[in-house]
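Postdoc handover notes: sequence design on the structure in folder B. Input tokens:
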């Protein structure tokens, strides 16, 4: 240990050996002797734990990019884009410039807690998993001695985003709103079959049978033009019954194209779909009486219609196994979770009705409630 001309204290610390067995040193500096001893102790602990302290410490942003390229480049395009957007939108703005070894668990908790105010629980889960994998990779590559993300959790305060199903009144509004729309068949198909967006847009006319729809493929919209892919899971390949109310919409087709939904003789591009869906939602909101200042209904999405279909199955007492098959869920649990959620909602509604009756009855008799 020696004092430099600038007043700081310095000490050489062994960090490894060269191929010829000569010791490699690094120099640690601090303002005081006590601080220097602490730094030397920390550096020695890193060496003992297997961290390669000769490596230049990258930032979180640099390592996240490296991790993405080396660990996730072979994943499906949709999965890769999910990780990319998570890093770009939620990690880099806050932690991108931090050195990997300077990040603590408290920093990560702070980030997740802030995001929980605007994110769904599912998106928060993706964020936490991404952070954990990035720091685990840094640990495995010798940049840090332990991962600050090991004990990172998504707290219960982050509620799952509710996807509300349409009510019977809203379904009626939607049907009336799109009756003259050139693509009225699209929302009706999603509503009465529960197909995913990619499954519906990939339907060919030969997939429409007399009493059922043969769901055997889907469209991937990683780019503007669709790419054909298999259904989301093996269970996604299925036959979905055609309700009577849907048949007239499916029969209303005079085009010569191969696909059910086309524009200029080609399957819908991502841009075309967005434009069409915007016009459908706009017509629905207008029919419901929405204005710039008054919002009587929420915007509709393909997933809202799929959730509405699942709700209809539940309310019509369709057994869970059949619902699983028609919805194309890969596991029984996925369908069971939806049914359980709907059951709790129904129970809460019953409790509120009971409380309303008791409150009204008590008021009539002058009893506090």
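Designed sequence:
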């Amino acid at each position: 240990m020696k004092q430099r001309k600038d007043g700081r204290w310095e000490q050489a610390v062994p960090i490894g050996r060269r191929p010829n067995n000569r010791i490699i040193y690094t120099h640690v500096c601090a303002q005081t002797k006590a601080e220097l001893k602490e730094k030397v102790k920390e550096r020695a602990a890193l060496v003992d734990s297997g961290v390669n302290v000769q490596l230049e410490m990258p930032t979180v942003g640099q390592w996240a990019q490296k991790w993405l390229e080396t660990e996730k480049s072979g994943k499906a395009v949709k999965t890769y884009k999910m990780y990319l957007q998570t890093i770009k939108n939620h990690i880099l703005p806050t932690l991108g410039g931090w050195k990997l070894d300077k990040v603590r668990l408290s920093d990560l908790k702070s980030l997740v807690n802030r995001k929980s105010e605007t994110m769904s629980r599912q998106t928060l889960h993706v964020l936490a998993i991404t952070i954990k994998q990035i720091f685990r990779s840094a640990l495995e590559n010798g940049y840090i001695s332990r991962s600050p993300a090991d004990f990172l959790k998504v707290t219960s305060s982050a509620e799952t985003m509710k996807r509300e199903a349409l009510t019977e009144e809203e379904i009626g509004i939607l049907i009336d709103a799109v009756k003259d729309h050139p693509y009225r068949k699209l929302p009706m198909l999603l509503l009465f079959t529960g197909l995913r967006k990619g499954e519906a847009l990939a339907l060919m006319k030969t997939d429409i049978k007399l009493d059922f729809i043969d769901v055997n493929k889907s469209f991937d919209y990683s780019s503007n033009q669709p790419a054909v892919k298999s259904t989301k899971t093996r269970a996604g390949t299925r036959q979905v019954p055609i309700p009577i109310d849907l048949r007239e919409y499916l029969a209303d087709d005079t085009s010569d194209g191969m696909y059910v939904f086309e524009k200029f003789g080609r399957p819908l591009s991502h841009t075309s779909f967005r434009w069409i869906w915007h016009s459908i939602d706009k017509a629905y909101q207008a029919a419901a009486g929405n204005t710039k200042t008054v919002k009587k209904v929420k915007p509709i999405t393909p997933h809202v219609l799929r959730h509405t279909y699942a709700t209809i199955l539940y309310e019509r007492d369709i057994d869970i196994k059949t619902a699983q098959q028609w919805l194309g869920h890969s596991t029984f649990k996925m369908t069971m979770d939806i049914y359980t959620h709907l059951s709790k909602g129904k129970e809460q509604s019953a409790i509120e009705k009971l409380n309303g009756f008791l409150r009204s009855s008590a008021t009539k008799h002058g009893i506090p409630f």
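Context for whoever picks this up: Confidence is low (pLDDT under 50) at residues 156-162. Don't rerun without checking with the PI first.
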